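Lab notebook page, bench 4
Experiment: in silico fold of construct C2
Operator: M.H.
Input chain length: 287 residues
Purpose: comparison with the prior construct
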Amino acid sequence: MTDTAEVISRLVGEPIHELRRLGSAVYLVSTGKRLMIAKRGAGPGASPAEAAGLRWLSEPGDVRIPEVRGDDAEWVVMDYVYEGPSGQAAAEAFGRGLAALHLRGAPAFGSPPPGGPADAWMGLAPMRNEPGPDWPAFYAKHRVEPYVRSCVDQGVFDADQAGMFDEVCSRLPELAGDPESPARLHGDAWSGNVLWGSDGQVWLIDPAAHGGHRETDLAMLRLFGTPQLTHVLGAYREQAEQLGSPLADGVEKRVHLHQLFPLLMHAEVFGGGYVHDAIAAAHGALR
């Protein structure tokens, strides 16, 4: 613990007053002046990717993002978010801010945040951010096919099931809907990464940020039951329209398609019910 405190102290440039372990690689850090969270990355590139993602998402100020206080190849240290109850006003402000953030754009589909590595992580799974010519090509090559192959190698999917995912990939140009410009994505916007702050605002943490399709973040918000979701999505839709970039027709039909990547990642890492969920999402995407 002493070595860990010394590393974190060096990164933040302040002496550590208290260090409390919250998980295998997560610490609550106090300097006496501020409270912070220190995280050790799950693998090579994880911490630099998270730090770059937090900075990229926070830069325009559309959505509340914890400030990065220090980082290196293994660690990222950021401000602690004091949590409070969810509420309609905060949900609507978050929806409007997320719409604006997405429309800040990205250089390309698959582009990493500025200064971030191509080889990043989403939770416990590696994730490749590599620019592609369009969203269907990027999504197939870097968000579906690698995880299907891994699941097949592990015996999670049989040949028929793998063939269904291959069909999704081959039909992606048709299934993806109208083409869109690359959005500035959080990339892992499930409910656990959406914090309701004691300041009455919504904060986003733990990004897997990249240039992607904005419907991916919206589908992630739906995946594990984000509170006040109706108000978040309603305000998002209104703001997108006001900003001159309404969501394309058929967005509800594409939810399964955009949930496919996180479910495949969970199937690869955790197995269990996520295997069934990933197969169900593929069926849903092909309907």
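Observations: The two ends are 53 Å apart (CA to CA). The chain has one domain: 81-287.
Next step: discuss at group meeting.
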